[in-house]
Amino acid sequence: MERDQLNNLLESLVSLPKETDWVEFKMNNGNPDSIGKYVSALANCAILCVKERAYFVLGVDDLDHSIVGTEVRLATKKIGNEDFLLWLPKNLSPRLTIEHRELDVNGLHVEFLIVSPAFRHPVRFKNCAYIRVDSNLQKLDVYPDRESTIWQAVSRYAFERQKCLYGLNADVLKESFFIDKMASKLKQSSTSITSM
């Protein structure tokens, strides 16, 4: 995701009238377990709200959505000897696609975790599933009706039909997936088949 796209995403999220079930703003919460619980809740709420992604954003005041910046740097954060960004998915079940992005806005640092929705079953962090209810983090088992709805939603979810990456321009797609090279190889293959 390029800088302009991140800026647009941030503007879109802070313009929401309030936090939603699929967006969480924090200023300096770098507590690993807290972040893990929120990621579980956000993934579970994303499938409930039929969203392609959910967002954990550090550096935004959750009351007035002003950009205040954060001192947290998730890319360099360690849990013991392990990088936080490797530790987090290991503690989620099922493992999710979580994109980490950073952005500086007028000298203020903002961190994003962009979270995929639950797809096989409710997402658990350290064997406990979470959800957001009215912007509050809650254990999912306290809300059996919502847990049932998640199970119904994930039963209709086709992982293979989801986007693995989004917001990429054509040049990045070509570079990342070697499209020109693949097209050339396919053309060579079809030429050799037709010449038989």
UniProtKB/TrEMBL annotation:
<protein>
    <recommendedName>
        <fullName>Schlafen AlbA-2 domain-containing protein</fullName>
    </recommendedName>
</protein>
<dbReference type="InterPro" id="IPR007421">
    <property type="entry name" value="Schlafen_AlbA_2_dom"/>
</dbReference>
<feature type="domain" description="Schlafen AlbA-2">
    <location>
        <begin position="19"/>
        <end position="140"/>
    </location>
</feature>
<dbReference type="InterPro" id="IPR038461">
    <property type="entry name" value="Schlafen_AlbA_2_dom_sf"/>
</dbReference>
<dbReference type="Pfam" id="PF04326">
    <property type="entry name" value="SLFN_AlbA_2"/>
</dbReference>
